[in-house]
């Protein structure tokens, strides 16, 4: 399926950015170069994250974050919300959204757009924390504009704060959003911050953490997952169907778990992706959804395994990597074992959950012709206007 970012998200970010920043920072070669530089800071030159950006380059860097990175990041939080929604776990009453390290507003905008898409009319109080005052100016304008376009009742507040130093205390929130923050803080502060935020989470709420899909940052998130579970701080709702520690992706230093979804960007973000050579169709990220109760991502998770790789098809077989309570193992269907019971496996993609219908444990190893397997797509309902190619040949 293709995840489509609403053009309205791009529009409100563009208008807000052009209100706050010099127009020269929001256009042309200056913007393109800033996008490439910011991408390098996120990926190949991560050591630069600890270095201050030169004052003259700060407007263009913020424009890059708002106009290129934020629209795609909005879709990432929508995927997590769709998985919660699929289990009926979006709180029904008035919502307080706490966006931690909000930047120009990607996570809040994605959440508001998702809530509108499911017909929610509940009052929303959105509170944003960030150390960048200029980014918060964009946040305020963009959130107000999208709320007006969507006819949502949103009261919006912001707070200037340094997350690296300040312990977080505040009113309870039903949705706490933490987008691309932890990878800049270090392991000890990341864990303490997540625990501080969990203390502010309502019993029916969710803490959504989105991080880059890099091996280094994803593995750090796996370690944080294990620390949270070992301490009994929260339940991991997604992406895991596995409730145990350690995360099997940590067994081999070359392994990590991340998402890779097809995305359709709005017009201008797509153009910027083309001219910079970045984000050419894939939405890559790692994430955690933490909750207080133990409601699982799918029913009967003990019989389930989440697909954590792209399926591979070769002569006479189709296979993928899946993670379950039994660990991280390959799942393979040979051509001679194709049957009506195994047909669903042939449609499986990364992020899907395989479920054995005979109640005999997760579907790992070789699938036999008599082994009934179903595929659950936890986020299927959200913003997908085109189905993916479900056809497959072994």
TrEMBL record:
SUPFAM superfamilies: S-adenosyl-L-methionine-dependent methyltransferases. Gene3D superfamilies: Vaccinia Virus protein VP39. GO terms for biological process: translation. Pfam families: Rsm22 (PF09243). GO terms for cellular component: small ribosomal subunit. One of its GO terms (molecular function) is iron-sulfur cluster binding. It comes from the Bacteria. Keywords: Iron, Iron-sulfur, Metal-binding, Transit peptide. InterPro entries: Mt_RNA_Methyltransferase, Ribosomal_Rsm22-like, SAM-dependent_MTases_sf. This is Ribosomal small subunit Rsm22. It comes from Haliangium ochraceum (strain DSM 14365 / JCM 11303 / SMP-2).
């Amino acid at each position: 399926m293709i995840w489509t970012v609403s053009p309205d998200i791009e529009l409100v970010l563009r208008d807000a950015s052009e209100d706050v920043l010099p127009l020269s920072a929001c256009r042309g070669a200056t913007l393109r170069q800033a996008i490439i530089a910011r991408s390098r800071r996120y990926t190949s030159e991560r050591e630069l994250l600890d270095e201050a950006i030169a004052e003259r380059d700060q407007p263009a860097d913020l424009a890059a974050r708002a106009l290129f990175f934020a629209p795609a990041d909005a879709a990432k939080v929508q995927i997590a919300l769709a998985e919660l929604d699929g289990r009926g776990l979006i709180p029904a009453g008035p919502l307080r959204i706490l966006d931690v390290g909000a930047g120009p507003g990607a996570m809040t905008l994605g959440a508001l757009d998702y809530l509108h898409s499911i017909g929610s009319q509940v009052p929303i109080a959105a509170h944003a924390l960030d150390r960048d005052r200029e980014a918060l100016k964009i946040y305020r304008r963009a959130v107000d504009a999208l709320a007006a376009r969507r006819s949502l009742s949103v009261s919006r507040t912001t707070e200037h704060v340094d997350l690296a130093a300040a312990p977080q205390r505040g009113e309870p929130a039903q949705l706490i959003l933490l987008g691309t923050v932890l990878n800049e803080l270090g392991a000890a502060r990341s864990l303490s911050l997540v625990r501080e935020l969990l203390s502010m989470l309502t019993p029916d709420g969710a803490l959504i953490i989105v991080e880059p899909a890099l091996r280094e940052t994803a593995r750090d998130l796996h370690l944080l997952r294990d620390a949270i579970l070992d301490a009994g701080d929260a339940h991991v709702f997604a992406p895991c169907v596995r409730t145990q520690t350690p995360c099997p992706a940590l067994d081999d230093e070359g392994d990590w778990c991340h998402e890779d979804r097809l995305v359709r960007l709005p017009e201008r973000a797509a153009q910027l992706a083309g001219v910079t050579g970045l984000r050419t169709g894939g939405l890559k990220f790692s994430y955690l959804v933490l909750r207080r109760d133990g409601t699982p991502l799918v029913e009967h998770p003990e019989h389930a395994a989440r697909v954590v790789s792209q399926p591979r098809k070769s002569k006479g077989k189709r296979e993928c990597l899946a993670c379950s309570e039994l660990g991280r193992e390959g799942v393979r269907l040979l051509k001679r074992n194709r049957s009506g019971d195994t047909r669903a496996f042939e449609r499986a993609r990364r992020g899907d959950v395989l479920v054995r219908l005979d109640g005999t444990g997760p579907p790992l190893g070789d699938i036999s012709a008599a082994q009934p397997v179903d595929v659950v797509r936890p986020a299927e309902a959200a913003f997908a206007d085109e189905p993916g190619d479900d056809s497959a040949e072994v």
